[in-house]
Amino acid sequence: MARDMVVRISEGVRRQFAQERYLEAEYDRAYSLTSLILFFFSASTVGWLWEVFLHIFMDGALINRGTTWGPWLPIYGVGGVMTLVLLRKFADKPAHVFAFAYLGSGILEYTTGWALEQFRGVKYWDYSESLFNINGRVCLEVLALFAVGACFILYIAAPAMDNLYRKIPQTAKVVLCVVLITLFAADLVFSALYPKMGPGITMDVSETTKWIF
Question: Which pLDDT tens digit goes with each residue over 70-109?
């Protein structure tokens, strides 16, 4: 009886250890270049869909949101890849991941908004009506959502998507990456020559509040 109990306890401990090791291995992994590229486009597309459906829900209008003409929002892809590249080393400390993601999201969104205003003279988003915002380019409460999203990416979404990417034959994966990069580069050039602007997409910088905090 005692021997059987010891065996059951040992087996339970072994399974628990194996499960913990499995969970650790799920997010504690090195992502290949092709996986990072595919994740960039996946995150960019999901971000674009989020913005489109959010606009439908809030304003009842179907609008191609974003800074380019393609079905992607690069800022989401950049943020997602930055999470995997820069924050994976802190994965065993979720509080650190959240804090760094909060700060990093703010820097990325602010600098991107500033650059678009300087080069195109318009705003693609504006948080001026929010209570806690900096120049309308970032909103402190929204950054908390981005930080939560970064944690979701690091611990759940990215490992699951990487598992799917690894099932794609290497040659096909490389070809897919090249095609996506080519299309994206063409979209960037076209968008630079013919910026996407209009109601629901952009607003004149002169018509927005410059500082509220």
Answer: 999 999 999 999 999 999 989 999 999 999 999 999 999 9
**Is residue 1 in a domain?**
no
Query: Number of folded domains in the chain?
Result: 1
19 within some domain: no
- The Cβ of residue 5 has, within 10 Å, a number of other Cβ atoms equal to 9
Residue 91: C-alpha distances to residues 25, 107, 147, 152 (Å): 11, 21, 13, 11
Classified as helix, coil or strand, 157 is helix
Half-sphere exposure of 85 (CA within 13 A, CB side): 14
Structural domain of 117: 31-207
- In eight-state DSSP terms, residue 31 is P
pLDDT band at 164 (very low <50, low <70, confident <90, very high): very high
Q: Is the pLDDT of residue 13 over 60?
A: no
Report the predicted TM-score, pTM, of the whole model to 2 decimal places.
Answer: 0.80
Of 107, 96, 43, 99, whose CA–CA distance to 72 is shortest?
43
Which alpha helices (H) appear in 29-128, and where do they start and end? 33-59, 74-86, 94-120
Alpha-carbon distance of 138 to 143, in angstroms, equals 7
Q: Is residue 136 a contact partner of residue 128, using CB atoms and an 8 Å limit?
A: yes
| Cα separation, 3 vs 11, whole angstroms | 12
